[in-house]
Automatic annotation (TrEMBL):
It comes from Cetraspora pellucida. This is 13332_t:CDS:1. InterPro entries: HMG_box_dom, HMG_box_dom_sf. Residues 6-57 form the HMG box domain. Pfam families: HMG_box (PF00505). Transmembrane segments: none annotated.
Length: 120
């Protein structure tokens, strides 16, 4: 799905979910104001909530690497002094540990699918 572009980070996933809710409930509010509201909501979220979105972003990033044709990608890890450091992931089969129970996995899958419409 994201093979030719960067996967969304945690804030972008959060923003997509919250902004669609705000658009439905406040249809006459300008987009610029909604963006500011969502940014403020993100700043006020608990670390556990932010962690949920960060884990979804990481999962999407790993799935994107796994979907590649040759499973060889150069992935930026972080920025230090304005420079990006890279590492190479090769032959990634399934770096994510299996879920503890199937029910929690399906709930998380439903959540991700509701945001990105993977099944559509």
């Amino acid at each position: 799905m994201y093979s030719n572009r960067k996967t969304p980070n945690a804030f972008l996933i959060y923003r997509r979910e919250k902004q669609s809710w705000l658009r439905r409930n406040y249809p006459r509010t300008p987009q610029r104001a909604l963006s500011g509201i969502v940014a403020q909501m993100w700043q006020n979220e608990l670390p556990a909530t932010r962690g949920k979105y960060e884990s979804i972003a990481l999962r999407l990033s790993i799935e994107n690497v796994n979907r590649s044709v040759n499973n060889r990608h150069v992935v930026p890890t972080d920025y230090v002094n304005g420079l990006t450091h890279f590492f190479v992931i090769e032959n990634v089969v399934n770096p994510v540990s299996p879920p503890l129970n199937k029910e929690s996995s399906s709930i998380e899958d439903e959540f991700v699918n509701s945001i990105f419409n993977f099944d559509a």
